[in-house]
Amino acid sequence: MNELFDKLILRIVFTIFMLFLLYLYKYAHSFLYPSSRQQLFKRFFPIKNSPDTMILVSRILGIGLLFSQFYFFMSEGFLYALLDFFLEASIGFMIYLTSIYILESIVLFNFEYQDEVLKRKNYAYSIISMAHSIGFAYILKVVLAVSNHSVIMLFFLWLFAIVLIGFATKSFGIISKLPFNRLLVQKNLGLAFSYLGFFWGWTLIISSSINNELIDIRWFSIQVILKIVLSLIIIPIFRKGLLIIFKFHDEIEKEIVIDNKPENQEKTLGYGIYEGSIFFASCFLTTVITGHINFGTFYPVF
Amino acid sequence: MNKISLYVLLILIYLGLSKSFSPSEQRIPYIINEKVYANFFRGTPLSVMLIDSFQTGFLIKTYFQKYKVFHGFKSPEIVTVRTSPEFWNRNLKNLGLSLFRRYDGPNNTSTTPLPPGSLYIGNLAFGSWHYKNSGKKVWRFHRAYRHFPKIFAWREFNPSFEFFERMKIHIQHQQPFYGLENEFGEKGSVTSLTFNNSNDKTPEGRNKLSKHLKKFFHIPVWKRTN
């Protein structure tokens, strides 16, 4: 009984420690995003500005996702367990915030957080920001797992992941029929949902490609590149297959996209949801093909 | 059109990269036919016995042969090679046979499929002919090589002088020889006792499906007993 009680106390201590780290995260956040300093240190009213709430909550969700990767190893003692967790978590959320900063600089370089969220209450901007926060947290969670406590490997894998996702975001213009900047200015939710599906789809592909055992760097790099190339081959097959099976009409008139009338907004919303969902579903199914086929001795290696 | 070209390019890049780094492509030697044996297998005396033929792949097959290589004075080694479909098919019936031998002396190689150990039968450096009580003349290895029949998986088989004579005729005409009573080869009475042909499509496979489907009806135990 003593032991069980002791374990429970320990778990509560760890919970408080994680909350303490989340508190530290606030400072890290205000360091990288000086414009949101007031937002974090003053009392926050979720009902006042829902797009802002969405951004803040998605970042907390991202940090939660990141922390879910960590473990406490008690075999070397309580303090060592706390120290390990503290170091990994601190590096983790610094990298996480830097990544979001870089991503938003790549994707939302034409837009300002203060203008779009605090002044204009642009939901589309918030949804896109949410996609980045949660999506990259998922990738970083995999990167942390693969780097296996090595800070050097964590740094290089993170750089690799950020390059991949950077290139991936640039392909939105090729894949989607919705013009990004024009519709984001118009607060178009269709665009936001399309981008959400697109970004989370790429998140799945990249995290599944990185998720290999890192024994030697050469073989790991080959596997990651091969998996990404394979995914690029498989995604169009799934996408085309879904369009044929469910008879989707994959066309939207240019006038509907450009014109900001309320009836057109509804049409672009439908198209955006369709586009995002189909891409996300295709990526999800692709990860099964690229990662979940175990050939075993089907092709023996001698 | 541009999209199709890009897609084809992606497939080619994937296949090219995979081929460059695939372990099976890099490590496994390729033997197109029997003409390559002389350069591939080194040393003398040497005998190469086919011990298995199998294929991998779903639509596009890769063909493999597994050999047991007998060097006269050291332990045999197992070598797996990729091969051409024609050569693979041609040698299916030659399971358990020696496909290549190298003797001492001029014109010293032979690729006629013969029973294993044929390289040493009749060579007085390795054994001699003896008369059995029945009057039959049979081959017996010297004391130093008494383990050879076991290596060649002869079991109870004992080559007779008649066997030897017939074998020489087959070598002369370059015709495969499976023994006087078809003891060797895919369906040979001696070979089938020792080697399992991976390519054998016997009805045993039918039971495999019911065994495989059992996992869908598996229920874990309520309580584990130590």
Topology:
The complex is a heterodimer of chains A (about 300) and B (about 230).
Chain A: H1 2-32, H2 37-41, H3 50-67, H4 78-107, H5 113-119, H6 123-147, H7 151-170, H8 172-175, H9 180-185, H10 189-210, H11 217-245, H12 254-258, H13 262-291
Chain B: H1 2-21, H2 23-27, E1 30-31, H3 37-40, E2 46-56, E3 62-71, E4 74-83, H4 85-90, E5 98-102, E6 109-110, E7 127-131, E8 137-141, H5 148-151, H6 161-173, H7 191-194, H8 205-213
Parallel strand pairs in B: 1-4
Antiparallel strand pairs in B: 2-3, 2-5, 3-4, 5-6, 7-8
What does this structure look like?
- The complex is a heterodimer of chains A (302) and B (226).
- Chain A is mainly α.
- Chain A has two domains: 1-170, no CATH class; 174-292, no CATH class.
- Chain A contains 13 helices and no strands.
- Chain A has helices at residues 2-32, 37-41, 50-67, 78-107, 113-119, 123-147, 151-170, 172-175, 180-185, 189-210, 217-245, 254-258, 262-291.
- The model of chain A has no long low-confidence stretch (mean pLDDT 87).
- Chain B has 226 residues and is of the alpha+beta class.
- Chain B has one domain.
- Helices cover 29% and strands 22% of the residues of chain B.
- Chain B is built from eight helices and eight strands, in the order ααβαβββαββββαααα.
- Chain B is extended, with a radius of gyration of 23 Å.
- The interface between A and B is medium-sized, with 14 and 16 residues.
Quick description:
The complex is a heterodimer of chains A (302) and B (226). Chain A has 302 residues and is mainly alpha-helical.
Q: Which key phrases capture this entry?
A:
heterodimer, A: 302 residues, mainly alpha, 2 domains, 13 helices, 0% strand, globular, B: 226 residues, alpha+beta, 8 helices, 8 strands, 29% helix, extended
Structural class of chain B: alpha+beta
Average pLDDT taken over every residue of chain A: 87
- How much is the radius of gyration of chain B in Å? 23 Å
How confident is the prediction overall: mean pLDDT of chain B? 84
Q: Which percent range describes the beta-strand content of chain A?
A: under 5%
Order of secondary-structure elements of chain A: HHHHHHHHHHHHH
Q: Into how many domains do the coordinates of chain B divide? A: 1
